[in-house]
Amino acid sequence: MELAERIRQVAREAEEALMACDDPGELEALRVKYLGRKGALTLLLREIGKLPPEERPEAGRAGSEAKRRLEGLLEEKREALAKKAKRRALDVTLPGRRPPLGKRHPLTQIIDEIVDIFRGMGFEVVEGPEIETEYHNFDALNTPPDHPARDLHDTFYVEDGRLLRTHTSPVQIRVMESRRPPLRIISPGRCYRNDTPDATHSPIFHQVEGLYVDKDVSFADLKGVIAAFARQMFGPDVKVRFRPDFFPFTEPSAEYSFSCVFCKGKGCRVCKYTGWLEISGAGMVDPEVFKNVGYDPEEYTGFAFGMGVERLAMLKYGITDIRLFLENDLRFLEQF
Ligand code: DAH
After folding, report:
1. How far apart (Å, rounded) are the C-alpha atoms in residues 336 and 322?
2. How many C-alpha atoms does 193 have within 13 Å on its Cβ side?
3. Secondary-structure breakdown of the chain: helix, strand, coil percentages, each rounded to the nearest 5
4. Beta bridge partners of residue 187, listed in sequence order
5. CA-285 nearest atom, ligand 1
6. How far is CA 264 from the centre of its chain?
7. I need a surface site. Which of 51, 52, 112, 207 has the fewest CB within 10 A?
């Protein structure tokens, strides 16, 4: 048989084998068998040179045609098999991978909880600026210029004379300046004090301010609201205690405590064996404050209270170091 015809025959045989092939290993074996260094087609192609010159062109054409065809087919088949293998590797019966879920920061969770409780009692949420005027943070709250709270050591001042608010109480002033009673607001937010950080002090912390102004609001209303809050936050058995205290913007003023949520008031390390945990301050809005915002103290009375968010979160979750809230350590944050 002529060489050209033998080439075409081997090529047909190779083509059939390639078409039927269904396995990458087998495909490679076929490549070696026909196109490898000692492959059937390779050996035939080598014989072309030995032909008499007049027979070479036809055999040459048949050879390059066969080689091009087989190489193309081989490549096609390789791709098809690879695709198929990929599809097989996807096991649709496997359970899906869980995408990592974000969570709210524990302080945000506590603030949301506090806000929900007060909303349920008819309070409205109002926010104020973190960069405050000295007037709103101190003067209007009846805190005279020589009061120790105004000391440079406690307050971060901004170059233009404003300051980073040291508490959320200035929001009381902003609300009363712009609205008339009745008012029932709470104001959660960030506060700043130039304190050295330790287990219970952080230069950045959060408070929730509360203010209730109307005709005939009494200290008994204040006690009722704080007690209702305490029970919703820490359970029906928690007790509330008020003791005399002093704040420039309330008269009378009180410090309020909850019975220790850890030992139920029996006495333990957290409550320093007193059975009580101090939460924050409260009182009846001082008439001087009402005068500063243009309310008539003969017509209206009101109460105000503060609340330390970190303190409540530490009690709720049993956290012993306030610095953990700002360190953004995922091992801490993922627990909430
Ligand atoms: N602003 C006070 C503080 O930072 C807390 C406070 C005390 C707020 C008494 C009040 C209040 O509204 O009546 O310690």
Report:
1. 15
2. 18
3. 45, 20, 35
4. 209
5. 13
6. 33
7. 52
Which pLDDT band holds residue 273 (cuts at 50, 70, 90)?
very high
Cα 171 to middle of ligand 1, angstroms: 11
What is the rounded distance in angstroms from the CA atom of residue 228 to the CA atom of residue 223? 8
Pairing of strands 124-125, 183-192: parallel
**Which tens digit of pLDDT belongs to each residue from 139-166?**
999 998 888 778 766 899 999 999 999 9
Evaluate whether 163 touches 141 at the Cβ level (below 8 Å).
Answer: no
Compute how many other C-beta atoms are within 10 angstroms of the C-beta atom of residue 228.
15
Among protein residues, the one with the nearest Cα to ligand 1's atom 6 is: 306
Q: From the CA of 191, give the closest atom in ligand 1.
A: 4
Residues 6+ apart with CB under 8 A from 100: none
Q: What are 61's two structure tokens?
A: 């054409």
Distance 250 CA to ligand 1 centre (A): 9
- Show the tokens assigned to 298: 């003969």
Q: Go through the chain and tell me how many residues it has.
A: 336
Q: How far is the centre of ligand 1, averaged over its atoms, from the C-alpha of 248 (Å)?
A: 9
| Span 205-219, pLDDT tens digits | 999 999 999 999 999
**For residues 84 and 99, what is the distance between their CA atoms, to the nearest angstrom?**
27
Q: Which helix (H) or strand (E) holds 250?
A: strand 250-259
Q: What is the pTM of this model?
A: 0.72
Query: pLDDT digit string (tens) for 286-315?
Result: 999 999 999 999 999 999 999 999 999 998
Residue owning tokens 């002033």? 173
CB under 8 A, 24+ apart: contacts of 108-113: 109/313, 109/336, 110/309, 110/312, 110/313, 110/316, 111/188, 111/206, 111/208, 111/309, 113/233
Query: How far apart are alpha carbons 217 and 300 in whole angstroms?
Result: 8
Retrieve residue 126's tokens. 């109002």
Q: Are the beta carbons of 211 and 175 closer than 8 angstroms?
A: yes
Please tell me the distance from the alpha carbon of residue 31 to that of residue 156, in angstroms, as a whole number.
79
Q: What angle do CA 73, 78, 83 make, to 5 degrees?
A: 130
- The helix (H) or strand (E) run that includes residue 143 is none
